[in-house]
Design goal:
This protein has five helices and nine strands; from the N terminus they run H-H-E-E-H-H-E-E-E-E-E-H-E-E. A hairpin with a 5-residue loop joins strand 1 and strand 2. By secondary structure, the chain is α+β, with helices and mostly antiparallel strands. It starts with about 25 loop residues before the first helix and ends in a 5-residue tail after the last strand. It is globular. The strands form three sheets. A four-stranded antiparallel sheet has the order 1-2-4-3. The chain binds a DNA duplex (10 and 10 nucleotides) through helix 4.
DNA sequence: TACGGAATCG
DNA sequence: CGATTCCGTA
C-alpha cells in the first residue's frame, strides 16, 4: 500500500527527475552543531541539480548522469559553500575522482564534464512517515530537525504536512533520478524545462559513513547484486544504506 | 581533459 | 575521513 503521500508515481519516465532534494541532518550537520559535519560534495551537487540551478550543472540524458556546463563556475559555488576561495575545477574534479572508488560517481567517458551518480539501486519508499523508529545504535544522534536542505524552500516534502514529523530515521531526497526500465532504453536529454511537478517520491536511504577503504574491487561498479545498497558496494566503501520497511518498499533498478 | 599519487588540513 | 592542494602523466 502506498502512503497517503501520494497515490503513486505519476510518470517515472519523465525526463525531469528532480525538483528538490532534501537531505538528512547527518548529511549536513550545520557548522554550529557539535561534531558538525560539512556538506559533502555529492550533496552539494544534488542540491544544485535539484534546484535546477542549471547554469553550472544540469542533468544529462542517462539516468543519474549530469553535465557540468560551467566547470569554473561550479567550482566557484563549491568554493563558496566550503569557504575555499581558491577552489577551481581541477581541485573539484579531483574530489569527484575520489568518488569513483567509493562508487558514488562514475565518469561518462567520451562526454566532456559528464559524470554519473550511481543511483543504480535505490529503495523507494513512501514519505509520510517511516514506521519503525530506528532504535538501533545507528544514528544515535538525533539532533532536532535539521533538514535544512538548502533547497528546502522549493518543495513541500511530501504532502507538506509534517510540522514536527516523528523521528524519521533520516533521509529523503525527494524525487531522484528515475529508474531504468530496461538496460538501455534511455536517452532523450530533456530539453530543459524545470517546470514539472515534483514527483511524490521519496528515497529512504541511510548512508552512513564508516571507516573502511578496501577499494579492492574496481570491477566497474557492478551495480547489481548489492541488495539494498544505494551506492553499490557501499558496504565496503564506507557508505551504508539501509532501508526501512515501510510496507511498500519498491526497488528501483528493475532487476537483480 | 582526465587520471591518480602524495602530502596536508580541519 | 573527505576533501584540498599540488603535480606528473597520459
Amino acid at each position: 500500500m502506498q502512503c497517503s503521500c501520494s497515490p503513486a508515481v505519476p510518470h517515472l519516465s519523465s525526463p525531469y527527475w528532480t525538483r528538490t532534494v532534501l537531505f538528512p541532518d547527518w548529511a549536513y550537520k550545520p557548522a554550529w552543531s557539535p561534531g558538525s559535519r560539512q556538506v559533502q560534495l555529492w550533496h552539494f551537487l544534488l542540491e544544485l541539480l535539484g534546484r535546477g540551478e542549471g547554469g553550472a550543472i544540469s542533468w544529462g540524458g542517462e539516468w543519474g548522469e549530469f553535465v557540468i556546463r560551467d566547470p569554473e563556475r561550479l567550482a566557484r559555488l563549491w568554493g563558496e559553500r566550503k569557504g575555499k576561495p581558491h577552489m577551481n575545477y581541477d581541485k573539484l574534479s579531483r574530489a569527484l575522482r575520489y568518488y569513483y572508488n567509493k562508487r558514488i560517481l562514475h565518469k561518462t567517458k567520451g562526454k566532456r564534464f559528464t559524470y554519473r551518480f550511481n543511483f543504480s539501486k535505490l529503495i523507494l519508499v513512501n514519505c509520510p512517515r517511516v514506521p519503525p523508529p530506528p532504535s538501533h545504535q545507528l544514528v544515535q544522534s538525533r539532533p532536532p530537525s535539521v533538514l535544512l536542505a538548502a533547497a528546502a524552500a522549493a518543495l513541500p516534502v511530501c504532502g507538506g504536512a509534517a510540522p514536527q514529523p516523528a523521528p524519521r530515521p533520516f533521509l529523503l531526497p525527494c524525487c531522484l533520478p528515475k529508474p531504468v526500465p530496461s538496460p538501455r532504453a534511455l536517452h532523450g536529454p530533456g530539453p530543459r524545462g524545470p517546470s514539472g511537478p515534483p514527483p511524490p517520491l521519496a528515497l529512504a536511504l541511510h548512508v552512513r559513513a564508516n571507516g573502511r577503504s578496501p577499494l579492492d574491487s574496481a570491477a566497474g561498479w557492478d551495480a547489481n547484486r548489492v541488495g539494498g545498497s544505494l551506492f553499490g558496494g557501499a558496504k565496503q566503501t564506507g557508505i551504508q544504506v539501509e532501508s526501512r520497511r515501510a510496507g511498500s518498499d519498491v526497488q528501483m533498478g528493475g532487476r537483480v
